[in-house]
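Example S7 (structure tokens).
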């Protein structure tokens, strides 16, 4: 099918981690494995796919969403898979997005072997228990030099939830975590030795 290429900023959404996605597109090498947990109508997905296309760099790029919305977050959106495909279908057809998984993050985690991904972005259900579960479930899927990112660190449920998930996974407190502020509110847990590669440069 032919999809009209829609520019990422014309897609409705809450995407505010442009700098993080720009860095992911530029820093991770060709062929990297990446997964976005929670995409809504595809604003962030479209941004990253368009960046990769500009750089002529292909990731194995997976996307997970129920496409039914999260209770209490956007109740007016019920079944928006078709809207996502309308927004991102051309990138799927051209191979910039590898696969869209229409399921929960808890279901999707079983599709991948451990230490599979170079980077994981957690931006699904923002409730405390959901964040803890996503972080705990998906950390084993990260390579030894991989990075986990999460959005909305300003939300108490996310802030406490990601720390808790990390603590439960590593069975210790105070696991290293960096937060990016400014336009973004992104948390980062980098398992590699080059921990400052994702940090925003401040004069």
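Recovered sequence:
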């Amino acid at each position: 099918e032919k999809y009209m290429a829609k520019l990422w900023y014309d897609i409705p959404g809450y995407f505010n981690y442009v700098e993080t996605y720009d860095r992911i597109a530029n820093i991770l090498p060709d062929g990297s494995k990446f997964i976005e947990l929670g995409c809504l109508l595809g604003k962030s997905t479209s941004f990253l796919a368009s960046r990769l296309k500009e750089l002529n760099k292909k990731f194995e790029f997976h996307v997970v969403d129920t496409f039914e919305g999260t209770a209490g977050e956007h109740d007016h959106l019920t079944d928006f898979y078709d809207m996502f495909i309308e927004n991102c279908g051309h990138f799927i057809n051209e191979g910039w997005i590898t696969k869209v998984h229409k399921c929960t993050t808890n279901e999707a985690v079983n599709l991948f072997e451990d230490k599979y991904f170079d980077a994981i972005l957690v931006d699904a259900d923002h409730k405390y228990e959901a964040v803890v579960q996503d972080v705990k479930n998906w950390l084993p899927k990260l390579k030894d030099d991989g990075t986990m990112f999460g959005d909305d660190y300003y939300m108490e449920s996310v802030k406490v939830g990601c720390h808790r998930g990390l603590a439960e996974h590593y069975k210790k407190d105070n696991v290293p975590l960096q937060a990016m502020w400014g336009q973004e509110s992104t948390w980062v847990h980098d398992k590699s030795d080059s921990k400052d590669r994702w940090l925003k440069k401040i004069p």
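Notes on this example. Residues 156-170 form the longest helix (15 residues).
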